[in-house]
Write a sequence for this structure.
């Protein structure tokens, strides 16, 4: 039995120390270091929870077609507010136009993809007292009050009345809707509480892309230029006037995601999401937008025969992107947490040292590396303590569209592995 367990922890020599910075140590400090990368790892994809998407710093809308992860759609609901309580439009205001402007904050996928976005009037009141997650929905009117077909311009600032503003999307809304706001009574305009009871907000929803793979477009709705703009004049008067209705932190807003039951996604991905824990040995899948995360277990660390004599100098978990050349960029950052007996997340001791130390960023255009030295040492020193595994997730997965396929621990090339450098004590 001892011999069998020892095979899980074979000492070997290769160039791995140069990859994690151990080559920076003085030569005398490297003397006596042992190295292994053969610790068994169990990995498989699981369904992500319904993440909260309420009040996030970034909203997104768009449509993606992905041969591995299937089709995805993102929409968002938002209120807009009065610029001031008791605002007045004067006697007999007449609508000229009403425009929703939303400042761009980036893109995931094809930046040149053409999109069609529809804007709908929300039919039920949004509330800060309700919890909204990625799959929540609020009733809305069946007919859109605005439509825009466009290719986003992220690079050049637009000039409005001679003033340069941040790149943004403009969607013209129906004049009837704008006139209804202008005609609202004093009580409706007396406070935002009353205003949003009458004008409940907007839903921005994409149509499926008609060609290419599409993209997800990120918006900063908290920017001052993200707002509803009404241009109007008074009856029998030609002087143009403007009223602004900001979208800000006082507005309820949330993202809504749809993955269409992952129809058309890679069969391995579908199987793992549905409970298959074996095919993760070859490859595992991570996807934002409340889609998928990866559970990891390193089951035999506590059974290593020489564990009581080991001082771990460095332990690095290496995760390799299966295809770095995919048209969809790999996430810039992954996150990893330990699991409690109830499945809640626990910050790992290595992360407590600092994010730069812990790692998880995409490096070398091909892989992620997490430093788990303290975690491994604790497991070796306390083998009888329960361990419920680790969970790997996309950082910021509630507000971005990132996804990546990682090689599993049984992959023939660039497998998922735990590198351990240690000193055997006398």
């Amino acid at each position: 039995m001892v011999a069998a367990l020892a095979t899980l922890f074979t000492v070997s020599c290769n160039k791995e120390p140069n990859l994690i910075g151990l080559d920076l140590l003085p030569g005398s400090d490297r003397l006596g270091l042992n190295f292994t990368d053969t610790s068994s790892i169990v990995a498989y994809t699981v369904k992500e929870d319904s993440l909260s998407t309420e009040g996030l710093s970034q909203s997104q809308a768009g449509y993606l077609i992905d041969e591995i992860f299937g089709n995805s759609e993102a929409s968002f609901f938002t209120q807009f507010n009065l610029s001031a309580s008791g605002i007045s439009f004067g006697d007999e205001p007449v609508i000229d136009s009403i425009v929703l402007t939303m400042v761009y904050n980036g893109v995931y996928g094809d930046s040149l993809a053409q999109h069609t976005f529809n804007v709908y009037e929300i039919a039920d009141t949004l509330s800060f007292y309700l919890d909204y997650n990625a799959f929540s929905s609020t009733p809305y009117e069946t007919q859109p009050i605005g439509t825009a077909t466009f290719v986003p311009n992220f690079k050049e600032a637009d000039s409005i009345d001679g003033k340069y503003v941040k790149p943004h999307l403009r969607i013209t809304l129906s004049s009837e809707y704008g006139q209804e706001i202008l005609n609202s009574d004093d009580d409706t305009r007396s406070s935002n509480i009353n205003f949003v009871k009458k004008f409940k907000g907007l839903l921005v929803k994409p149509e499926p892309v008609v060609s290419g793979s599409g993209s997800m477009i990120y918006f900063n709705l908290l920017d001052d230029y993200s707002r509803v703009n009404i241009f109007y004049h008074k009856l029998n008067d030609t002087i143009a006037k403007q009223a602004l209705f900001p979208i800000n932190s006082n507005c309820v807003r949330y993202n809504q995601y749809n993955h269409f039951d992952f129809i058309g996604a890679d069969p391995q991905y579908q199987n793992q999401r549905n409970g298959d824990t074996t095919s993760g040995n070859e490859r595992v899948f991570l996807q934002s937008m409340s889609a998928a995360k990866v559970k990891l277990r390193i089951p035999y660390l506590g059974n290593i025969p020489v564990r009581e004599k080991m001082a771990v100098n460095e332990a690095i978990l290496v995760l390799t992107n299966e295809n770095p050349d995919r048209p969809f960029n790999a996430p810039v950052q992954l996150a990893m947490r330990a699991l409690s007996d109830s499945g809640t997340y626990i910050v790992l001791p290595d992360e407590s040292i600092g994010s730069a130390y812990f790692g998880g960023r995409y490096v070398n255009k091909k892989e992620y590396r997490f430093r788990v030295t303290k975690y491994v040492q604790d497991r070796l020193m306390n083998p009888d303590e329960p361990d419920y595994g680790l969970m790997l997730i996309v950082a910021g997965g509630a507000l971005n569209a990132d996804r990546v396929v990682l090689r599993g621990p049984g992959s023939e090339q660039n497998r998922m592995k735990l590198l351990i450098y240690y000193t055997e004590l006398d």
Notes: The two ends are 23 Å apart (CA to CA). The chain has nine helices and 25 strands.
